[in-house]
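Lab notes, practical 5.
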Amino acid sequence: MKVQVRERKASSVTVADDAIVIRIERPDVQNSPTVASEVSGSRSDRAALLGFAARADCYQGLVLWHRYEALYSLLMAKQSELESDPSADAYTRLYDPLCQVAASYAVAAGVQHYTAERFVESAVACMERIPALGRMLRDGLINSASFRRAVEQTALVDDADILAFIDAEAAARLREVGGLSAARVETILGAIVAEHDPDAVTLTREEVRAAKRVQVNPLTDTASELIVTASAEDVAIAKDVLDAVIAGVCPNDPRTKGARRSDAAMARINGTDFVCECGREDCTARLAPADIASRCARIVLHVVVRKEVLEGTSQTAAHLDGHGPISATHIREMASRPDAVRRELNLDDVIAQASRPDSGYRPSAALDTAVRGLFGTCSWPGCARPAWKCDLDHVCEYDHADPSAGGVTCICNLNAKCRFHHGLKTHANGWVDDQIVDAAGVVWTEVTSPEGITVRQQALNMWLLPELGHLQCGHGSPTRREARHAGDEPERSLTRLQAKHRYRMQKRAANRRAREAIAHDAGAPPF
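Output from the prediction step:
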């Protein structure tokens, strides 16, 4: 394999069977005062630069796969050598093949033996234990960090048949969901392991229980860190409690959010007062015990689980908001807690709102829960903000002046967005998002950047709530609505916000027509 990097006037990436050739436009900024205007004026060039900067790490995965392949070949050769050598005594055999190959690798790479052994174990996982996920690493579909996390998540699966199924199922699901951030890879794989090998998850939970501890690590001569190991739900609640405490400081408090959390944790543990540090006489901080207790009383930890799991007839994993998949055994234990409140999601209420042509601006409680449960996190690619800490956004903007014109309040047009990405879509020029429900009932979201890069991904929890993609909407085709907005209606004076909404509708309609054309040419559905 050859890797060549050349400077050219056109940015491009070419992958051949035995070579990767990367051509990058790198103008001489010092000698060319017009570079900034030339680059800013070319959307395709900006898209090429952004695409390379964002996805060039896929080649690291290709190189890493070949490194794993090389070490695995050495390991197999060493194992065959020792097995066929009758002169090897018991002491020699004490240093097994993995140990000896790791020792050689440690010397050659200049790393410690422990690090070398972990690397050889990852090579075995890539080539032998989870080869389908290994091929995804090779193909650049997941990065090295995501693969290492996959190795850790499958380490306790010791049944070969179950492991082979998990490997194949995870690879198939990851190849089709799109938008593979590290958090999404971990969540999807965690759900599959929790469902198909609950014993491995239970063993992990038992290990965590046995390892519950409080650890102190000195950092500098003036600071140390305190590490508390506890259950996922207790840690999530503890973090929300700290956020409830620090919410009482005034806007002039000079500390970062992390520093405020640290001070609040120490105050709660030590039984001292948490105070605002603005130093102003007119401080409006609300830090009295009654105020803190009132905010803490509103803390709710949301878990989405199927009814049959609680009844003990299914092992499907549940989704813990802010954490990710948890096993069926774990959620049944949580449901038995005295402070747990169980509320069933009534799909009839969701269907009732979705079936109305004018469904109003605010979603019902059932629709709100369904949308947050379906997406699990912020729907923006790469963001892992928990869904219940996000806003609900009308993807196609709700038209308050003419509600029948578009922007319906329905499962097909609502998703969760954190406050930052909601504001980015609303106020920054050039961003376009869309939501599509395909013929198979899969809910997709896509985001197009100002440079023209489009990322499409499935709703994170389609595996948990597949019914939500099959609800029958009563408001017509989104494409037809957008086409009317795009120019079929009489011209009228538009505000700046209305003009921005119309631009997005036109872009969504154009993107959908492009997808349909590609699907028609390929002779297959677009997803």
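Observations recorded by the TA: The chain has 21 helices and 13 strands. The first strand starts at residue 2 and ends at 8.
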